[in-house]
Amino acid sequence: MKKIILRYLPFLYRLRVQQLIMKRHLINLNPSIHYARAMSIEKLNFVCMKHKSVLRRVLGNSDPMLQENKINNLRIALLSVNGVTIQSGETFSFWKLIGKTTKDKGYIEGLMLSNGEVRTGIGGGLCQLANMLFWLALHTPLRIKERHHHSFDIFPDDRRMIPFGVGTSVFYNYVDLQFYNPTNYTFQFNLSLTDDFLEGSISSDKELNYLYKVDERKHTFYQKENKWYRGNEIWRLVLSKEDRAPVNEELIIINNAEVKYAKSNQATQEAGLSTNNNEGSHYE
Q1: Residue 118, domain member (yes or no)
Q2: Pick from 122, 113, 147, 123: which is nearest to 133 by CA?
Q3: Which domain holds residue 151?
């Protein structure tokens, strides 16, 4: 009920947002939290994971120009994240590094998701960067300290390279993406843009003792009260380097999202989507 009231009373919504921003500012003052800030142009030697994501996708009926605007916004944000190191005991915070996205910094209108709806906003499109960072971190022993996900599946898959549901929602500054480094390793994010891709990697100062992989399980579409939903489980697997035998596994996410683009099982199949996958899929 509170969400509905805030949605239809813009003044109360803006007031609530400012309250949450101020609350997060106060939390960030905690002296016991050591945030990652150091940047290095020297890349760490041991690459844990590489990935790339397509910059221009078909997103419903959205204006393709907003995809170009997103690329502009990503280019600016990368200046604050590329080369950052996360040392032992430090916390990586998406918004502590990037800060508020403003016109003065060069950010422009891009696509944003809010309450299951597509809208535009200054700095829109940075979710793609957050998605990249989260996917890379899943392939290391970094601990997920804070991560938010969209409660809706807005668009059909278009050249999907990672499992559904590992996307990340970010909104300055209280909807953050944070990782904590509980290990004796130092990690580093390296990111760049090509004409067609956002490319990223995460490296460490020493070779890791184990392999880290992501497993998607129980992927399904199902209908409930005349609405379609998409669900799955995302697991992080720790594997032996010698024979890839499982050492440990951790349930990271249980996804159940309302599907906004398809109204029937047939429509999901026509969109090229699997309707069931209980055996699991490995992503490396």
Answers
A1: yes
A2: 147
A3: 17-207
CA atoms within 13 A on the CB side of 229: 13
Note whether residue 269 is domain-resident. Answer: no
Cα 166 to Cα 131, 162, 211, 238: the distances in Å are 7, 8, 19, 18
Question: What CA–CA distances, in Å, run from 116 to 47, 120, 141, 153?
Answer: 36, 13, 32, 8
Better pLDDT: 150 or 38 = 38
> Rounded distance, CA 222 to CA 256, Å?
10
The answer to whether position 178 is within a domain reads yes
* C-alpha 97, offset from chain centre: 15
In a domain, 253, yes or no: no
- Please say if the pLDDT value at position 175 is more than 60: yes
Given a cut of 90, whether residue 161 has pLDDT beyond it is no
Q: What's the pTM?
A: 0.89
- Mean pLDDT of all residues in 185-201: 98
Please list the residues that pair with 235 across neighbouring strands.
215, 251
Beta strands 210-224 and 281-283: pairing type? antiparallel
Question: What domain count does the chain have?
Answer: 1
